[in-house]
TrEMBL record:
Belongs to the prokaryotic/mitochondrial release factor family. PROSITE patterns: RF_PROK_I. Pfam families: PCRF (PF03462), RF-1 (PF00472). This is Peptide chain release factor 2. Keywords: Cytoplasm, Methylation, Protein biosynthesis. The lineage of its organism: Bacteria, Pseudomonadati, Pseudomonadota, Alphaproteobacteria, Hyphomicrobiales. SUPFAM superfamilies: Release factor. GO terms for cellular component: cytoplasm. InterPro entries: PCRF, Pep_chain_release_fac_I, Pep_chain_release_fac_I_sf, PrfB.
């Protein structure tokens, strides 16, 4: 059904674009024949908007990876820097939540570890929607924020880092074998909202896959049993994503252009002071309106990063425009 829906969306989208193109071309011809410049300008403006939609659908047609159509997990981790970085991690959590809501996707908060004073130490989102992983996979990496700190009484400029890790939800058709002997399971009390229950029972679950050192955790449910089942699903998804990345790296001839997932390897900078600029360091895509970006307007950055993955290099991102 998901594959059928994807095909329907693609075909109907193409038909809609062709119809709008022909309608606006006819309007321009009619306006020129009647000498009505207003109709011509209106149709030309519609064609410019149509061009933007065509570019987006062209990019979306590149989402042909075996997991691109799946739902996705998004992990947010604050970096060194205490309250500053924890507040930045919370801002990123809101940014991706807003992006998903803008695209009418469903968002579930799987787990969250609050900061001591403000923000979060880490959190995991589950985003459900068409091509959720295909779009979000371009966001994995380190994100850097420069601003005047609201937590500094001397109003000094601070630089904060947080990392994003994205991996797809896998369905029953994909088999991932995990030996329980390779895993360590810990239970602990949930943090954050949830009432008295989360503070008095060890319902949250953390699973560590010892051979790969991958750690997943879930505290969404009140039941430890349900949290454990979801944590196993998350672990299978993480191992699957690691295998996808391994195959992609082995097949790629442009490895040098890829940003590593690690501190000191930022993929994007968000500068709020002394000027306002968001810049993707992989593609060169920029925005002078950080407020809109932090409110979830990420499509230009995602589209450019996706085009670069497929075609390689900044030049390819400009060419596809």
């Amino acid at each position: 059904m998901r594959e059928r829906q994807s095909l329907d969306d693609g075909i109907n989208g193409l038909i809609r674009l062709e119809t709008q193109l022909n309608d606006n071309l006819e309007l321009i011809e009619m306006g020129e024949e009647e000498g009505d410049d207003g109709i011509v300008r209106e149709a030309e403006a519609a064609l410019k908007e149509l061009r933007t939609e065509v570019t987006r659908q062209q990019i979306e047609s590149l989402l042909s990876g075996e997991a691109d159509g799946n739902d996705t997990y998004v992990e947010v981790h604050s970096g060194a820097g205490g309250t500053e970085s924890q507040d930045w991690a919370n801002m990123l959590l809101r940014m991706y939540t807003r992006w998903a809501e803008r695209h009418r996707m469903k968002v579930e908060l799987m787990e969250v570890h609050d900061g001591e004073e403000a923000g979060i130490k880490s959190a995991t989102l589950l985003i459900k929607g068409h091509n959720a992983y295909g779009w979000m996979k371009t966001e994995s990496g380190v994100h850097r924020l420069v601003r005047i700190s609201p937590y500094d009484s001397q109003a000094r400029r601070h630089t904060s880092f947080s990392s994003i890790w994205v991996y797809p939800v896998i369905d029953d058709s994909i088999e991932i074998d995990i030996k329980e002997s390779d895993c360590r399971i810990d239970t602990y009390r949930s943090s954050g909202a949830g009432g008295q229950h989360v503070n008095t029972t060890d319902s949250a679950v953390r699973i560590t896959h010892i051979p790969t050192n991958i750690v997943v955790q879930c505290q969404q449910e009140r039941s430890q049993h349900k949290n454990k089942a979801k944590a196993w699903d998350m672990l299978r998804a993480r191992l699957y994503e690691a295998e996808l990345k391994k195959r992609e790296d082995a097949a790629s001839e442009t490895e040098a252009t890829k940003a590593e997932i690690g501190w000191g390897h930022q993929i994007r900078s968000y500068v709020l002071q002394p000027y306002q600029l968001v810049k993707d360091l992989r593609t060169g895509t920029e925005s002078t309106n950080p407020t809109d970006v932090l409110d979830g307007k990420l499509d230009p950055f995602m589209e450019a990063a996706l085009a670069q993955r497929v075609y390689g290099g900044k030049e390819a991102v400009e060419d596809i425009d």
